[in-house]
Amino acid sequence: MSGITVSGGAGGVGAKLDDMRLQAQQLATLSTELIGRSGTAAAKAVDGDLLESMILSPVTGAAAEGAIVLASGSLLLVATETGVSAVFLEGAVVAYETADQLIAAATVALHNGVAFVIGVLAVPVGLVAAAGVAVVGGAWMLTVAGVNVVVEGVDSLVEGAQQTLDQIGDNPWLLLSPAGVAGLFTANSIAAYSPQEVIDRTAATYADALARLQELAPIAGQAANEWLGDNAWIEDILTDGAPGLLAGLTFLPGLLPGFNGLMSVVTGQGWPPLTYEQAIDAIATGGGRFGLFEDGTAALEVGADGKPKPHAVPDTDVRGLGDLMNGSSEIDRIGGDDFSDIRIVESAGPPKSYIVQIPSTQVWNPDAGPAANDSTSDVVAMQGEQTALASAVLDAMRAAGISSTDPVMLEGFSLGGITAGLIASDPSVPFNITHVATAGSPVARYDIPDDVQVLSLEFEEDPVARLDGRDNPDRANWTTVQGDAPRLIDPATQELEEDGPGIAFSHNSHRYEEFADHVASAGDPSVDAFVDSADPFFSGDQTVVDYRGTRQ
Asked: pTM value?
């Protein structure tokens, strides 16, 4: 496995900026204190006792006055230098943050511009390409048919000539009539010509070409898959520039009178959308007009006593990052299409703490069903709104007896991580969320509090992790680890995959499980700081139960 890239966390730029800002505040405080002490020292120069003593000893008094002036001046000088240093440090932080914001804004503008051009050209270029393929394909098919007609014609002439020669050998007297020979040759050639043979030969050529295309398609597909994986920045342009892309796709229809007004009515947004958030809202609202993305409410499976029913998970321990990712794979397999499986891992402590594992998307139908971990939850969560899945998670936490003071780690892969970020960023949630761990989750736009420790794992090739169109914040409490998606052992052959996962197969919880183990042992200070802070969640006796949530 290749190396990793770590941003944020204890060793990140954000932490260093925080240190600089803190140091600037301390220097400013020290400068104020020194100025005060300088004034106190200067006041001694006009002290009544000192002035009276100068009458008796002018030389000594003058020396004392000079020392006081020198001391107070030195303190004032040091105070000034300290104050200037504080201003300089604070200014450096502000300058860096301002430059970073300007670069980010410029990047968004550039991405929107490029995405707009892509959107404008997509339809006409697609139509031209399709027409070109149709014309070239049709011309080729006609050419193949024409060639086979000619070939069959030549074959029939050869066969007709051979039959005529055979007939002349049996009846030499036929040579006495050249016209008769010509007529006989013509009749034999016509009889030898087979339209069915032309059809069969043409069909065989088409079938052979199709078979060759089918052989080449996986090769071309894998090449495209790996190329897109290696150039995933293309998705950054399309996601960050989502407003520009939507505007571009509808630019030509938008020239028609009333089209933009119609789109505004359908999407509930001014058209075209101007921000990423407006673009997501337009998709959600537009789908809602047709009965899609209707999230509803959530409920947990109950037992005979009418209370939420926990399902014990024996022989399961969560002792590190790899175990977290393995748990994500397990709960996805358990839930399926019928319900969302939510896992609660209680560590006895002290102090007692809980890991809450949230399932990823298992149903891609935009028409909401009983399993709340579906594409509806994805869209609603990306809007920043609480979902039925999030409600089921909170209900499971209450059912597990988690108090408002117990430390809680929220963890999830894909939608599970999105939901974890959504819950952690909601100030109304009545739980003590101290840690969040995500894998392959677009969570950059969530305002997770500074006192929550966040670890985000992302593959360079993973398209889902890039759907937020923004880098995760570089903050002291938020560590992001990026790297290449590892190849896995094929369970059928027990051999390592030959091809890289590329953009199509990188979004996989098993790959993140292997990546998490590698990350935990990489020795990066930011990662180590997160793991150390999370140690109570992985220590002591553990009890694991699952709750089954459904959408109502």
From this structure: 0.82
